[in-house]
Amino acid sequence: MNTPTKDEMVSHLHKQIDETSRKVDELKLKSHLAKAEVKTSMEETINKLDHQQGKLKNAMNHLAFCSESAWDELAEGCQRSWKEFKDAVENAVEKFKS
User: Fold this and answer.
1) Which of 84, 93, 77, 8 is CA-nearest to residue 53?
2) What pLDDT digit, counting tens, does each position of 31-90 carry?
3) How many Å separate Cα 82 from the centre of its chain?
4) 38-55 residues labelled b (16+ CB within 10 A) or e (exposed)
5) Residues whose CB is less than 8 angstroms from the CB of residue 94 and which lie 6 or more positions away in sequence, other chains included
6) DSSP string of 41-66?
7) Ordered DSSP codes for 3-48
8) CA 40, CA 37: separation in Å to the nearest integer?
9) For the whole model, what pTM was predicted?
10) Cβ distance 55 to 74 under 8 Å?
């Protein structure tokens, strides 16, 4: 198996984030339509997801412009952040499934 290049990895992660962000957008729409007691919980979860997504995008920006010597460490951290974000979104979608 070939190790992806920095550009390939950054491009792939951007695509994955965009796809997962659509799920967050769907949660935002559901939260606007939700009853008050569920709405607060949904909004708190969405705020956490937005914060986590911002941190992931920041890490990806560092990854895109890092030196080759920092590549392995940053790539590993970025992949770990991506998995945490993806899992959090999937858990939120499942939690608020209607």
Assistant:
1) 84
2) 888 888 788 888 999 999 999 999 888 888 887 787 777 777 788 888 888 899 999 999
3) 6
4) eeeebeebbeebeebbee
5) none
6) HHHHHHHHHHHHHHHHHHHHHHHHT-
7) PPPHHHHHHHHHHHHHHHHHHHHHHHHHHHHS-HHHHHHHHHHHHH
8) 6
9) 0.75
10) no
Q: Crossing angle for the helix pair 36-64 and 68-95, nearest 10 degrees?
A: 170
* C-beta separation of 45 from 89 below 8 A: no
At 2, list the tokens.
């070939």
Tokens, residue 13: 């992660």
Structure tokens at 39: 């709405």
Q: Are 49 and 81 in contact (CB under 8 A)?
A: no
